[in-house]
Input
Amino acid sequence: MGELMEQDINGLVSRQHSYFAEGETRSLSFRIGQLRRLKEAVQGYESRIMEAVRRDFNKSEYESYLSEYSSVLMEINLMLRHLAKWSKPARVRTPMTHLGSRSYIYAEPYGVTLIIAPWNYPFQLALAPLIGAVAAGNCAVIKPSELAPHTSQTIADMIAEYFPDTYIAVVQGDAEASTALLKERFDYIFYTGSTHVGRLVMQAAADHLTPVTLELGGKSPCIVHHDARLDVAAMRIVWGKFFNAGQTCVAPDYLYVHRSVKDDLVNKLIRAIEEMHGERISIGEFTHIVNDRHFERLETYLEDGKIIYGGGRHKDSRLFEPTLLGEVKWEDRVMREEIFGPILPILEYDSLEEAMRQVNSKSKPLALYLFTESQAVQDRVLREIPFGGGCMNDVIYHLVNPHLPFGGVGESGMGAYHGRASFDLFSHKKSVLKQTTRFDFKFRYPHYKNALKLLKKFYR
Ligand code: NAD
Output
C-alpha cells in the first residue's frame, strides 16, 4: 500500500467524521430509511452475492442462501420491527435521596465505526455488524476479507451503489489496508477474525482509546455423554461440523465422547456423513477450502492420528472430504490449533469430572456443545465451564437465534451482537438525571449548619 492509499483512507475517515457531526444519521426516521435501503440493496444483489461466494470457495447454494443471504435479511427485518422501541430513552428508578428528579438512559451513536470482517462467511460477517451500526445511527467503514475477493468486490459495489461513502464505505485490501485503517481515529471498532489479529486490533485501538468488540475463534468442544440420543446427536454434529466444510467459527472443533458410547457414535457419524454428503462430494456440492495454505495446513493434521473415515481430497479444487480422526492426543497440533476445516478429531473420557477438567484447562471456548438427556449433567456443565455461548443437544443453532447475544469470552472474544444486542453494542448509553428546580434541599450543601448530621440520619 502506497502513501496515496493512506492519504485516501485518512481523507475518507475525516469526511465520515464531518458527515456524522452534521447529525443527519441520528434520527429514527433516517435510521429506518437506511435499513430499508440496505434491505433493498441486499435483495437487489441476491444473485451476485450467491455467485460471488460460490466463486470464492465453491459454497453450495443451500449453505449460501441460509448463512449469507437470508440470515442478513432476517437481521434487518428484526431491527426494522423493533428499532423504534429500542431507541426510546429508557426511564430507570431514582433513589429517594434524589427527590424531585427523574433518570433516563439515552442510546446515542458512537460516531464513525470500523468493521473488519473475515473470509469464512464473507458477506454475512461484514453485513451483520453493519446493520447494528446503521440502526444505532453510526457511519461505517467496512474492511472485508481479501481471501474472499469476489464477495469483497460485490460488497464494495453494492455499498457504493446504494450509499454515499461519507456515510458507509468499503475499503478493500489485506492486512496492510487494515493496518492503515487502524491508524485512524474511529469511535468504535468491530473486528471478527483470529485471536492473533484480534490482539493487534486491540493494541491499535488503545492508541485512540477506541472501544472494541472482538469476535474471535478457538477450539469449541462437543461433548457427548453416555446417555445422549446418539442418532440425533450424530446427524446434528455432522451437519454442523461439515457446514461450510468446517470453516465456521462455532463449528464443533473436536468431539469428546464418553468411552462407553464412542464406537456406537462413530458408526452413526459415518452413516450421517454418507446420508448428507456421501455422493455430493464427488459432484462438487461440498464447500471447498479457501486457499492452498489452509488446505496444506489441514493435510498436516491428518498425521496426528488415524483416519477413521474420509481423508480423501483433491488438491487442485481444494476439496477436502468430511474426515473423522481417531487416536489423537491433546498435545498434537490438531488439538492445539483451531482446525477450521472438515476434520473431526474424536477423544474419549471416562467421567464427566475428567471431561470438565480437561476443557477447563484450555482457554475459554467460543462455543460449547453438550449432548445428554440428563438435566443434572446440563446444569453442572453450564455452571462449571465458562464459554461464549452454545447449545444443549444441538450445535451452532444458538448463533442463528437473533434474541441470543452472540460473542466470545476470554481468548474467544469480547462483546456480543445480533438483534437487540447489536443495537446496544453500537450505542453509547448516556445516563442522564433530570432535576427539578421547583425546590432545593439546603442540607445537601456543606455550609448548611446541620448538613452532615442530617445526611448521616438520612443514609442510616
Ligand atoms: P484473520 O484474523 O486472518 O483476518 C480477519 C480480518 O483481519 C481480515 O479482513 C484481514 O484482512 C484482517 N487482518 C489480517 N491480518 C491483519 C493485521 N495484521 N492487522 C489488521 N488486520 C488484519 O481471520 P480469518 O482467517 O479471516 O478468519 C478466521 C478466524 O476468524 C478463525 O479464527 C475464526 O474462528 C474466526 N471467526 C470468528 C467469528 C466470530 O464470530 N467469533 C466468525 C468468523 C470467524
Notes: Residues 116-120, 125, 143, 145-147, 174-175, 178-179, 192-194, 197, 200, 215-217, 249, 338, 340, 366, 408, 413 surround nicotinamide-adenine-dinucleotide (CB under 6 Å). The mean pLDDT is 95.
